[in-house]
Amino acid sequence: MQAAQVSETTYTSLLTQFSNHALEQPFSLIELKVQKLKDYVAKWLQFQSLWDLEAEYASNRLGDSLAHWQQLLTKIKQTQATFDV
Going by C-beta distance under 8 Å and a sequence separation of 6 or more, which residues neighbour residue 82? Predict the structure, then answer.
């Protein structure tokens, strides 16, 4: 292969050929995906804290109140739907 036929292996030189506004939508879409990923990870970490939760701590915190336990279980079920998708 001759040196004149060798092409660049990156596309950074193409960036100078775009208008300033041409990349706004792709970057916006990437930022949206990153935000969704952050939200997903935050929910995942909430679940992780549930797995690490000591039963005795939960029992002391919620006591004998069935309403409190039901509220906790309802929130867990609602959050679980995120990971079922």
Answer: 40, 43
Looking at residue 37, its pLDDT comes to 94
Distance CA 4, CA 65 (A): 79
CA 69 to chain centroid, in Å, comes to 28
In the block, tokens 């969704």 appear at 36
Q: How far apart are CA 43 and CA 39, in angstroms?
A: 6
66-84 vs 55-62: helix crossing angle, rounded to 10: 130
Distance CA 66, CA 42 (A): 28
Alpha carbon distance, N-terminus to C-terminus of the chain: 50
The tens place of each residue's pLDDT in the chain, 85 residues long, gives 455 555 557 778 887 888 878 888 999 999 999 999 999 888 888 777 777 777 777 788 888 888 988 888 888 787 777 666 6
**And the tokens for 62?**
């919620």
